[in-house]
UniProtKB/TrEMBL annotation:
Coiled coil: none annotated. The keyword Hydrolase does not apply. PROSITE patterns: EF_HAND_1. One of its GO terms (cellular component) is spindle. This is Serine/threonine-protein phosphatase 2A regulatory subunit B'' subunit gamma. Residues 1-32 are annotated as: Disordered. Gene3D superfamilies: EF-hand. It comes from Papilio xuthus (Asian swallowtail butterfly).
Length: 476
């Protein structure tokens, strides 16, 4: 027992010495004074035999805390002068010299980052090192090239310092986990990872050149400038008429803004542009022999852009370059309800009660991508007539009444609203039994069906006859 007590005291003494060595002399002196003060106070209590009350104990604890932490709270005022300036305001439009300096500095920085990337010859060298790492592998054999961690490190050391960022332990672990975790990674997977990372870094540098403010965002004008300079390198757009180029650039840039700018602030993050698939779709047009079927499915293809712009021109019956509510009523199957169209013109930006091409593009993207959260958010804002953040039975009835009117106009018997309302609520299963929020629509996975029932007669008809349509599809 005595040995343990002696050992504890020795440990406490060592710990105290360590703590004292880590603190400043001034702090040590203060700590010693506080310790002596507490010891004297405790001795006084023992000698007098009195018992402290709870209030007295708390008061002493607060005073001790203030004395102990006062220097840390106040800090060393002299050290504040040594903190370097870390925030610089963006130069104003009239500060030409400051803007030029900022642009030149950013250009030098991006050029430096570009030199750190691997070029084609260095990528070829990497592949040759991968092949040499496994003596049993030959290009003509059917065996797959695999490397373990020791070979991985050997390749990294032989390749040189420029390759090190691509050959970390974390990269090997992630690739190994993705392939089953057997202590090896495929050479092809590693090489594809390096190539993909180099491509992303090159693309980020390329996009950053158009980021005028250097804040990591691209405005609509920045995106249009980037796409306009990219168009000549896209082989699938070789036949694009020069008079249509500006409309194509507008059409392409609008998709980035619609899906990546949910708050409609007029800019998108470069990080979001890189992480989405839109840039891949756009750069896919570099292929000369891209099948027409793939081009029609690609929003950025010439065929798709001409289709959208052609629809806009066909709707513009008075040829003034804008669409009125009556002209827009002919969109698609021509069964968009009047109530929905009126809300679109109330909610969206118009000019003297007419819609321009950019606003039309937003509507087209929303209607053609109803399963996407961004499209549902757009349509939800239109449906939310009272701007209350949810759809209730009154709102559903307001829009479905227009569907019933279209049914009567086509000689069909109108469907009872209560039945449709119950089906929509059963389909969405909202958290609140009488309110449907945007989150409910997205979470349910059936939001596109629910909004289609309320927007157009064609959408309601497709829902009502879904079983017959499914059977016809299976038969065909």
């Amino acid at each position: 027992m005595s040995e343990n007590t002696s050992k504890d005291k020795t440990d406490d003494k060592v710990n105290n010495n360590v703590c004292e060595n880590e603190t400043s002399p001034v702090q040590n002196e203060l700590n010693n004074k506080l310790k002596n003060r507490v010891k004297n106070y405790i001795k006084k209590l023992e000698d007098t035999g009195s018992v402290t009350t709870k209030d007295e104990s708390e008061k002493m604890e607060i005073e001790t805390f203030k004395q102990l932490y006062k220097p840390k709270l106040e800090g060393n005022q002299e050290s504040y002068e040594k903190i370097p300036k870390f925030y610089f305001k963006l130069p104003r439009s009239d500060e030409v010299l400051a803007q030029k300096l900022r642009e030149e500095t950013r250009a030098q920085f991006l050029q430096k980052k570009s030199k750190e990337l691997l070029d084609n010859s260095e990528l070829k060298h990497l592949w040759s090192l991968l092949e040499k790492s496994n003596a049993n592998y030959t290009p003509s054999s059917n065996d797959e090239l695999t490397i373990d961690y020791m070979q991985y490190r050997k390749i990294r050391d032989e390749a040189g310092p420029k390759y090190r960022p691509y050959f970390t332990a974390e990269v090997f672990g992630r690739l190994q986990a993705a392939e089953g975790g057997f202590g090896k990674v495929r050479g092809v997977s590693l090489f594809n990872y390096v190539m993909r990372r180099v491509w992303l870094q090159q693309t980020r540098i390329g996009l950053s050149l158009y980021d005028v403010t250097g804040q990591g965002y691209l405005t609509e004008h920045d995106l249009e400038s980037y796409i306009a300079e990219l168009v000549p390198s896209l082989a699938a757009l070789d036949g694009l008429d020069s008079s249509f180029s500006s409309f194509y650039v507008c059409t392409a840039a609008r998709k980035f803004l619609f899906f990546l700018d949910p708050l409609r602030v007029g800019r998108v993050r470069i990080r979001d542009v890189l992480s989405c698939s839109f840039l891949d779709d756009l750069l896919e047009l570099r292929e000369e022999d891209l099948p027409m079927e793939l081009q029609e499915q690609n929003w950025f293809s010439a065929a798709s852009a001409l289709r959208v712009y052609g629809q806009y021109l066909n709707l513009d019956r008075d040829h003034n370059g804008m669409l009125s509510i009556n002209e827009l009523a002919g969109y698609g199957s021509g069964t968009l309800t009047r109530a929905f169209l009126q809300r679109v013109f109330q909610q969206c930006l118009t000019y003297d009660g007419e819609m321009d091409y950019k606003t039309y593009l937003d509507l087209v993207l929303a209607l053609e991508n109803r399963k996407q959260p961004a499209a549902l958010a757009y349509l939800f804002r239109v449906l939310d007539i009272n701007s209350q953040g949810y759809l209730d039975a009154f709102t559903l009835n307001y829009f479905f009444k227009a569907i019933q009117e279209q049914m009567v106009a086509h000689g069909a018997e109108p469907v009872n609203f209560d039945d449709v309302k119950d089906e929509i609520f059963d389909m969405i299963r909202p958290e609140h039994p009488s309110r449907i929020t945007l989150q409910d629509l997205v979470r349910s996975g059936h939001g596109h069906t629910a909004v289609s029932i309320l927007l157009e007669l064609h959408g309601f008809w497709a829902y009502e006859n879904r079983e017959a349509l499914a059977a016809a599809g299976d038969h065909s």
